[in-house]
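Sequence only, no structure available. Ideas?
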Amino acid sequence: MFDVSEVQRRRIALYSHDTQGLGHVRRNLAIAASLASGDPAPEILVITGAPAAGVLPAPPGADFLSLPAFGKRLDGRYEARSLLAPVGALIELRSRILQAALDAFDPDLLIVDKVPRGAGGELERALDDLRATDRTRCVLGLRDVLDGAAVASREWHQQRCTEAVDHYYDAVWVYGDQQVFDPIAAYGLPPVVACRTTFTGYLGHGRPTSPPGFAAPVPSEPFALCMVGGGQDGIDLARSFVQARLPRGRRGVVLAGPYMGDDDREELDRLVVSRPDMTVVGYVDMAEQFIAAAEYVVSMGGYNSVCELLAHEKRTLVVPRARPRTEQLVRARRLAQRGLLDVVHPDELSPERLSAWMASGAGTPRGRRPVDLDGLARLPGLVDAILAPAGSPGRWQPGRRRAVRVAI
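Reply:
I predicted one. Tokens follow.
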């Protein structure tokens, strides 16, 4: 148990299972940074399965606990990324680590990203322990879009997510704007989930910035930027961008991401040999300096990338991932309907398509409708409400949890 005798600091744990890329942990780090400004500042434990998480800058008072990593097959199923172990043994190992870590850290608040029982149910032991003491408040944090409606609804039912919310969670936070996409309505989620749900707004404004003294190799001349997220499946977009015609007097910059395979990166390096106006940059901690300076941006449609681009009001073309999940495609199309960006289906991607987009006005604003990007600013208040003593004004009052264990 942590010693808090000197000063009573809140302890907040954030969990993400992280099977692919850095999206989950980057979202949790943005949340951690928004909560780190408390007085006194909370202690924050970021629990993640992302192998590269340790290279990301953590806010003051926050540290990482890295779990043995999952990988994800092309069909969406999990496997061990590095250990020579079946996935069931990996889940068991991670489950025991989670149980011990949360017992020792004894958080006031646990925020779980996306999967209410944890990947493969790995969080259930720890959640049972937390519910037995009933001291820790638990929040389920959801992206605005989980997947296409049919798939998301089926998986929510198969994974018994409603029962998990009913039994374990005090609140559900949707990190999005209900006017853009409402998962409660789209997926037909029941009243027990709806009554605990708050739409925070997108986590756009106020995201963490680079540490003092950090200088990214940003071109001084006008440039177009290509972002491929973690890079593990970004070679098609990067290749098309490197082969596209740039507007006169512009450079092109590709952020390759930390997970781009060696063969794919070597292919890009070969392609740019004949393109003095193109640069491929390896991993950078944060992309905001490139985004802020870019004239045009072509990007995959991950949640964090889209939030950053909307916050910077960039001329943006999104080429979303469409397989094995359609989450990025659904979000991009909804935002395109509001005039906030342009979208091209990955099956229609080509160098010529990117060239034409950059030459034709490149996402010039056209009757944009507003979108709520202030979720990070609202999170500290939501934490205060859920942790307020019973009977305090403004305390969060969700529907009551069941007092008995749900059969699982």
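The chain has two domains: 11-205+374-387, 223-359.
Hope that gets you unstuck.
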